[in-house]
Amino acid sequence: MARRHPGPEAYPPSGFPVPPADPPPAAATLPRPPRTVADAWSWLVAAAVGFVVGYVLSATVLVVVAQLNGHAGDLATLERLAVPPSWVVVSGLVGLWAGFLGAVTLSSKRWGTGRVLRDMHWGFRWWDPFLGLVTGVVGQFVLLPIIYLPVSLFVPHLSQRLSEPAKHLTGGFRGSDVAVIALLTVAVVPVVEELFFRGLVLRGFLRAFAGAGRVLGPVLAVVATGVVFGAAHVEPLEFLGLAAFGVVLAVLAYRCDRLGPSIFAHATFNLAAMLVVVYGGVVRVPVL
């Protein structure tokens, strides 16, 4: 009689232990995204698209709010004022932030883990406020004056011209308007812009330039992030200072491997600039 072979259910033979399957690697041990150069460039393209979409949304929101306020006919005039109404400033910022945060979220969901804050290296330590405070003050009152000292030899009334964008954003407001603009400038702007520039853009450049070497790659990424940060503000005269401090913020985010220090440095820088403008002085660069 033919010997019958046991069916699949007979394996493994009774009494033999089944080796456990290898556990999947813990999420914390995986490299943070973007994990490939292709993903990195996808992040950077998403950032560029988010920037453009943000400006379109900014203009759209501004037109809608102006229509609701009955100022549709004189919106262009209000925007050109040295100190525009607070609703003009806030409406423009809201649209821009929507584009920034949309790019951050899309990149994490499509080419990351889907955990947005983790992918952007969100994190804080107890000493981050102190590190950020020192960096912001030194950046505003030491770094930028040194950078613009040679420029002042060739550009007349440089301090006054550099202060105009900051006054456009923060100067001349009174009462509750000051509180609203201060909250946005010191608390919201640093968070949104650090997620976008030192989260999305910096991490994209770090992966994209990884092939350049362990030293040159991060240097290129940090400098490129600073240049993008300066150019994004669309203020030609202030580009040098904005880019320089953008490099400082990128170094903080890269070396500390989290956004906490750069967020506090950004907030301190903006607070210092706002206080100088509000109390009648001049500031070297616009609020970031």
Number of continuous helical runs = 10
> What's the quaternary structure here?
single chain
The assigned structural class equals mainly alpha
Order of helices and strands: HHHHHHHHHH
Shape: globular
- Biggest β-sheet: count, sense, barrel? none
Number of domains: 1
Number of strands: 0
Radius of gyration: 25 Å
Mean pLDDT: 86
The level of helicity is 55-70%
Keywords:
288 residues; 66% helix; mainly alpha
Task: Give a structural overview.
The chain has one domain (33-278). It has helices spanning 37-69, 75-80, 86-111, 116-119, 128-148, 158-170, 176-208, 216-232, 239-256, 260-278. It is built from ten helices and no strands. The model has no long low-confidence stretch (mean pLDDT 86). The protein is mainly alpha-helical.
